[in-house]
Amino acid sequence: MRVTQGRAGARILAFGGYQPARVVTNDELSQAMDTNDEWIQARVGIASRRVAGPDESLADMAAAAGGKALAGSGLSPEDIDLVIVATCTPEAPIPNTAATVARRLGIMAPGAYDLNAACAGFCYALAAASDSVRAGTATNVLVIGAEKLSQWVDWTDRSTAIIFADGAGAAVVSPLADEDDESGIGPVVWGSDGDMADKIVISDRNSFIHQEGQAVFRWATTALHPVAKEACRRAGVDPSELTAFIPHQANLRIIESIARRLGAPQAIVADDIVTAGNTSSASIPLALSRMAERGELPSGSPALLLGFGAGICYAAQVITVP
Amino acid sequence: MAMTEAEILAGLGEIIDEVAGVPADQVTPEKTFVDDLDIDSLSMVEIAVAAQDKFGVEIPDDQLKDLKTVQDVVNYVKRSEVSA
Lengths: 322, 84
Known about the structure:
The complex is a heterodimer. Chain A is 32% helix and 24% strand.
């Protein structure tokens, strides 16, 4: 049996991000439920978040982010042969979002699949894309994290309505430039804890999203910093060398707690949640795209990504900033 | 060997300083976490986790919610050490 010709490595060429136009402030939420701006900012760190418009679909948002990443990469749609959309909030089970997005962007007949690892989805999808490029099953991959969580939120439930939001982020993954290219996507450290499966759920298509915030907080602030350090170790990068740390934007308190234990004092820590809310699998690529736009990510330097969420599923890898 | 109350209090002061930014010398036994020290339930979880590392005593969420003052936590750690 023949097998594909492998490649030495894969790298990210560009990021793209998209946020819906509609801004929902803490003050607006305070009119609908018993909460206030000060409490929300102290508790979760969010000042405002975005919600998709009434006619704005998940595929719309995913395509917008994907299109920006594609444009930033310098590649043409014809160059993309695989599209992966990480999402846990498709409007319908089939067709998948990836095939729809590919068509919208003029990408002709690529491999296309959606991937559900909740808030760890983008890191899982990035690992899958990197593996495909290295194995030779794809050449240029468009990886998108997109969520329309607003359609699953009970807007009278203070514990979730203040947190979850909509958005999309994307990256283009390609082979290394040449044999001297030392950039890359580091080995993923992934895993799950099924004992915690009941801690973040959407039970069925007639249900709202529910989470046991305190249990998730305790788990996240204890179980994840070893995963983060292991991802660094496997990539051969010491945490002190990191220029950026981009964890899933679940809650600013969780982010700060993990960052404190990481041993990366020089790293800028993503706090995109402040004006994006928790957008599940979109949160990491959306944060990356906005940090890149602001010039906060030095090209060629190592950055650590850490996704974690419902499942509980988690995944982390070091990447070279494009 | 079990720690003295003074040692537990000092250790707790260090933890609260690190987690919540409250200077250790302000962590006195009669103070309540919520009203006196402005520490919410999420910080309490971090304090419980750090206490497990420092004192070897586990404080699950359902026990944690009943610990209202600094002395409550000191007592909890002392009780758990004795029975260990």
